[in-house]
Design brief:
The protein has helices at residues 136-141, 153-172, 222-225, 256-263, 273-280, and strands at 17-19, 24-26, 59-62, 67-71, 76-84, 122-125, 148-151, 175-184, 188-190, 193-195, 197-198, 203-204, 208-217, 232-239. With 281 residues, it is α+β, with helices and mostly antiparallel strands. The chain has one domain (17-280): Extracellular Endonuclease, Chain A. The strands form 5 sheets. Strands 3-4-5-8-13-14 form a 6-stranded antiparallel β-sheet, with helices on both faces. Strand 4 and strand 5 (76-84) form a beta hairpin. The longest helix has 20 residues, at 153-172.
Length: 281
């Protein structure tokens, strides 16, 4: 099921080409910045020309449920972005159908669910299963391995999950959110101790897990409303470590601007600079 197209104020045509039985949308390679997904109308944190970077370090995938920039040399996404509103939350069961992402080019190394087995790290969702429960298809879309990172169990099942629940609670109260999640660095502490990689080196274990969230009242023309509406902005950066157990997500809050400096990403890039300066600091 495709999410309804949201109105955007910048007047650019949203010309996504839907292929593969509606499972994937690909940007126009000639000018991807003018074809922002409805899941990330506030901007892509990083964007190469076309749908791949010149050095092969990132590959952009746009799905109906979320957008992600995949790092084929690391086996994980650099970031995943999605929009969350009340219509995304329904009664669909958790599908648990972890699988390789068939939307990747065939020359990429396919990461499989078993690559995480007995590693000491969870298959940690970036776009959560719980944010896509409107239909079974939407929920299933969150279980492709490009949406996973090796995450310490205490992070995935504890503080990270608590922040996901916080966002869903806000949305159920009549708000909506734009969310980005990812990781950086190398080397995390799982249930079996420290590790830099898993899957015989095919998957990097990140050092930190981060998330950026903008929460605002429900409405249309979201880009233009950010400057005038009362918005809540949350940014967190936490160690990918068992040691975070018992710490709450507020312990790890940072400013968006701090996270940009650390990761080299550019959040909310479609907003006017004055608005970015206000909400990112």
């Amino acid at each position: 099921m495709f999410p309804s197209l949201r109105s955007v104020s910048f007047g650019l045509a949203l010309t996504l080409l839907i292929v593969s039985c509606g499972r994937k949308a690909v940007v126009n390679p000639s000018d991807p910045s003018s074809n922002l997904s409805t899941q990330a109308v506030l901007g892509y944190p990083s964007l190469a020309i076309g749908n791949a970077s010149a050095d092969g370090s990132e590959y952009l995938l746009i799905k109906p449920q979320y957008v992600l920039s995949y790092q084929p040399l690391k086996g994980i996404a650099r970031w995943v972005g999605w929009h969350l509103q009340r219509s995304d939350l329904g009664s669909a069961d958790r599908q648990d159908d972890f699988r390789p992402d068939e939307d990747l080019p065939r020359n990429f190394t396919m990461i499989r669910p078993t690559d995480y087995t007995n590693s000491g790290f969870d298959r940690g969702h970036l776009c959560p299963s719980g944010d896509r429960t409107a239909t079974e298809n939407d929920n299933s879309a969150t279980f492709v391995m490009t949406n996973m990172i090796p995450q310490a169990p205490s992070v995935n099942r504890g503080v990270w999950n608590d922040l996901e629940e916080y966002c869903r609670t806000k949305v159920k109260l009549g708000l909506e959110a734009y969310i980005y999640a990812g990781s950086y660095g190398e080397g995390g502490k799982g249930s079996k101790g420290m590790a830099s990689t898993i899957a015989k080196g095919s998957v990097i274990v990140p050092n930190r897990c981060w998330k950026v969230i903008l929460i605002m009242p429900e409405g249309d023309n979201d880009l233009s409303r950010v400057a005038t509406e009362k918005v809540e902005v949350i940014a967190v950066s936490m160690p990918n470590s068992q040691d975070v157990a018992g710490t709450g997500w507020r312990r790890w809050t940072v400013t968006v601007r701090e996270l940009e400096r650390t990761t080299g990403l550019d959040f909310f890039s479609e907003l006017p600079k004055a608005v970015q300066d206000k909400i990112e600091n």
